[in-house]
Amino acid sequence: LSFDEEFWIRATRGLRGVEDAPEARARIMGAVRRLDPPRRRSLWERIHEGWLVPRPVRLSPVVVAAALALALLVGRWLGSSPAPDDGGFMTGETRRPVQFVLAAPEASTVSVVGDFNDWDPAVHRMARDAGGPWSIVIPLEPGRHTYAFVVDESVWMADTDAPRSPEDEFGRVNSVVMVEKETI
Amino acid sequence: MNDLQAIRRVLDGDREAFSELVEEHHGVCLRYAVRMLGSREDAEDAVQESMIRAYRGLARYDHRDRFRAWLFRILINRCRTVIARRKSRDGRMFAIEEAPARLLATAPPDIDPMGREVLERAVAMIDPLQREAFLLKYVEEMSYPEMSACTGEGVSALKMRVKRAREALQAILKEAMVVL
Fold first, then answer.
1. 3-state SS string over A52-113?
2. Are B2 and B8 in contact (CB under 8 A)?
3. Chain B: residue nearest A118 by CA?
4. ipTM given for this complex
């Protein structure tokens, strides 16, 4: 029996059926009828919450890049913002090849698991030439990634040649790789 | 009537329009709460409280959110509170009290389609945060960004929890099969 993604999707189908309870729905509506109706927020409340209360804002990277490019163009046009010395700006989020290497001569199989493959050992299996170290090249998005090696599909180990991340919530120590953004 | 229309009618003073939202979302909420809490009674209470909180706070609902995601945020927090109270009250992590031995005694060799009960019990035995992530991904079929919006946790942490949940469930199910 293989406990792969397909297995879990199939197995959990049986958990989707729970008998609904009409009497429970009726109890909720009974309680609702005893409450005052929710009051619409006044114009001032909406202005206050919308514009004056600090809140996290989520922006699409494309929008941020477009806004920065526009600001740069406007700055140049106004003559008040000289072009940066390097004359360039960040390209899009293109992936860059990263090589992972592990010397494990006794191992039968080695995989790389990390936040880039859902920590699934089946995704990135490493290969080796006779007698050489295990290696694999994986294209990764720029940024910080945590990873580890899984040896013989059972032993979890950090990369001794890379910085360590703090212990994760399960007490395991992983390694960290920083992938730089490519500039033009 | 869609969710937004029902919400607008409730905010215009039509309390009965809230029943549209209850009809639409009660089943899904109950399913999650039953699987999460392992007790039908606790689950019905948690869903009722969540829906009443949603009703009271409906004016604060941001229509750019999906109503289901907003409601699930309330429900997930409610379930977490119930579990934390149980734990502090009697040191019991899970509502389902079947010991592993009972699980092993009844486990069928293949969990599909016969083993729903086995998987139910196994799910109830794993860590609550792992169970939460597992249920949202596989039973509620949410994407990781949706799960993140509902739980307030980062996508990486959620992926890790799902992975750990699968490992824990796999170990329980394998043990059950070995005994058979």
1. HCCCCCCCCHHHHHHHHHHHHHHHHHHCCCCCCCCCCCECCCCCEEEEEEECCCCCCCEEEE
2. no
3. B159
4. 0.77
Which one, of A114, A95, A115, A97, lies nearest residue A159 by Cα? A114
| Contact across the interface for B56 and A38, Cβ inside 8 Å | yes
Helices (H), B91-154: 100-106, 116-125, 128-134, 144-151
Indicate the residue of B48, B58, B163 with minimum beta-carbon distance to A38.
B58
The torsion angles phi and psi of A101, rounded to 5 degrees, stand at -135, 140
The per-residue pLDDT for range B18-34, each reduced to its tens digit, is: 999 999 999 999 999 99
Tokens 């007490």, located at residue: A171
> Is B63 in CB contact (< 8 Å) with chain A?
no
Q: Distance from A75 to chain B by nearest Cα, in Å? A: 34
In 3D space, the residue among A133, A147, A148, A135 whose CA is nearest the CA of residue A103 turns out to be A133
Mean pLDDT, residues A86-114 taken together: 76
Is B55–A32 a contact, with Cβ atoms under 8 angstroms apart?
A: yes
Of A147, A106, A140, A111, which Cα lies nearest the Cα of A127?
A111
Identify the three-state secondary structure at position A149. strand
Give this prediction's pTM: 0.57
Amino acid type, B45: D
